[in-house]
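Example with several molecule types.
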Amino acid sequence: MAKTYKIAVIPGDGIGKEVTPWAQKALEKAAEGVADFEYEHFDLGAERYLRDGAILPEDEEERIKRNDAILLGAVGDPRIKAGILERGLLLKLRFDLDQYVNLRPSKLYKGVTSPLANPGDIDFVVVREGTEGLYCGAGGAVRRGTPNEVATEVSINTAYGVERVVRYAFKLAMKRKKHVTLVHKKNVLVNAGDMWQRIVDEVAEEYPEVSHDYLHIDATTIFLVSDPSRFDVILTDNLFGDIITDEAGAVVGGVGYSASGCINASDEYPSMFEPIHGSAPDIAGQNKANPTAAILSAAMLLEHLGFDDAAKKIHQAVEADIEELGSTVRSTDQVGQDILNRM
Amino acid sequence: MAKTYKIAVIPGDGIGKEVTPWAQKALEKAAEGVADFEYEHFDLGAERYLRDGAILPEDEEERIKRNDAILLGAVGDPRIKAGILERGLLLKLRFDLDQYVNLRPSKLYKGVTSPLANPGDIDFVVVREGTEGLYCGAGGAVRRGTPNEVATEVSINTAYGVERVVRYAFKLAMKRKKHVTLVHKKNVLVNAGDMWQRIVDEVAEEYPEVSHDYLHIDATTIFLVSDPSRFDVILTDNLFGDIITDEAGAVVGGVGYSASGCINASDEYPSMFEPIHGSAPDIAGQNKANPTAAILSAAMLLEHLGFDDAAKKIHQAVEADIEELGSTVRSTDQVGQDILNRM
Ligand SMILES: CC(C)[C@H](C(=O)O)[C@@H](O)C(=O)O
Ligand SMILES: CC(C)[C@H](C(=O)O)[C@@H](O)C(=O)O
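Resulting structure tokens for the full complex:
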């Protein structure tokens, strides 16, 4: 009998609610016969916050932790001050569940029109650190609202936190084209940048087959446009990873095709899978959002649990769907159903 | 008789040395009859540092300060540890001379091939704060080189520093398409982001004709690829400005066409004009670098000194040159001479 996995489902806000059900359906269908899923739904996000002020109650977080993995839709709502849900829900989960590898593949699928004139063969993965850097929330402000206000943001980086994600990147490179590009801004952020570079150089010695180089974040934004096929594994910190994965998403034809995994690679806590797009309030509730990224995040969840063949079913269905119908205007449900029908 | 202006010239490293003479020649020719220039050359950069260990000696900085403006080439050399020249020379000048507006226009010239399939009509200016944020150098490290190392980087933002650059952006927008886009990451960097947004909202009230909106830095990298013609004035902090101006440079066909001004808008100290490209060690010394960005930085210098007509001569010559010969492979000297011949 197939083993049953417990999946926490957090559809969240806006289009998150529309695309997440399709991720679940794809999960089910792909794993038919090899794994069963039991879902625990969590009503978290803007609606809940506006209703009862709760963002991520402790007991619910405890229940989330008891699952084998998490499917997340999107978090963010224009009615709520920027940062409240992001810091209180999404980032709190990434930090509390120690999801230190934020894994974000970028691939230009056949049938997708890139905004680039000559995109070439784009297929790289960004390994973004997920639990440190400027995302720690270690800033403050004095004399707020006065002409003498000073506001700070502090990036905290530890050898412990950097080394584990660097190792992950080199291991991943061994399964790919064996090249790691460290992205930072070490000519300005000399303390953090120097530490990242030293740790990369050290770990690289254990992987003689993997070549590695370094690019400043600003130069990286250029190459993502001028020569994106040069990349294999991009390794970077939390903020730079946020920035370049959105640019990469645009370059491969829109964040509608970009999934991500917030991975606790030590398996102490469940990992979380989500499309990299946001809640898109402008198109929410209109059955317009593309569920492909959410469906691909289900494939990443399957890979994480060890079901590579099941994940492959999703990838193949998505690739075939995009190749044939990628340029057709379809509803959320239509795309979801079309992909499911191919599985 | 035409007034004489004193210009400090810092060619710096790599291709900086090849393109800066063309900026001077363009300056001379454009201002013929309306202004004269007296140059003071400063031997600063990698060669000097390797020779005698000097980066920016105090007396030389004092002499630089006594000029009316500064022409800078590029700073950076692979033989020298990242950060030493950048922090000790380039950023030190920007900070000590309180060049709080880092002005970076992006324009897609006729005749230039953008890497985008449908670039549209790109013409915007990034107003990057130049004296605060993560560039302050307020970080540190403990237990360096051990498994317990912690490295920090601190972003310092003041209402004083933000307000003056916000005002500059709104004033600039009045002379353009009257739209300001604030770029930040206020859903994560809640202290600094909140202050930026509040100050923008306050200053905006004094400019009822200027509309303004907000974009996260990650979303901005998407729009720069998918819809760059939407922008007019982009207002942002030091690090985000660094990142998006390089991406913008790529989108308008390469940073070879992008100039910048590090402006002390209160005129207490001289402002500095430089191409946004780096020292490009890979092509340095080969008479290959495109001097157009350096020549355009001379035009920005002229505008700053109030010589709009002279600046226009440069712009027109550059535009005509690019339109006719932009896609031809030419040497540094050939491009420089071609542009000069048109003036
Ligand atoms: C919503 C936001 C906090 C988040 C981030 O910055 O990490 C998002 O942009 C992402 O990339 O997942
Ligand atoms: C060389 C470097 C310190 C500099 C910066 O980061 O500001 C450069 O990238 C720039 O954009 O002028």
